[in-house]
Specification:
two-stranded antiparallel ribbon, 2 helices, mainly alpha
Length: 84
């Protein structure tokens, strides 16, 4: 990721809606753009890696990745999906 200029704010502090002293943040428009650009780059990279994969290979990978991540969360005591 590129180095940010000091004047580019990606997030701003906002008051805790619950009235507490916790720090809360809201993403700025610039932050949202950067996040979208970063996510798009990741997707382009995955598309390149899986360009020759069959739809069944992609589906199997997605299923195993979901299982892998779910088990990591379970073992760390943070079950997924988390309660709303």
């Amino acid at each position: 990721m590129q180095q940010l200029h000091h004047d580019e704010r990606l997030r701003v502090c906002i008051p805790d809606p619950g009235g507490g002293i916790a720090r809360k943040f809201r993403i700025t428009a610039a932050g949202e753009r950067r996040l979208d650009e970063h996510r798009d780059g990741i997707i382009r990279g995955l598309d390149k890696v899986m360009a020759d994969w069959t739809p069944d290979d992609v589906a199997a990978f997605a299923a195993y990745l979901k299982r892998f991540n779910t088990d990591i969360e379970r073992l760390s005591g943070r079950a997924w999906p988390r309660p709303g």
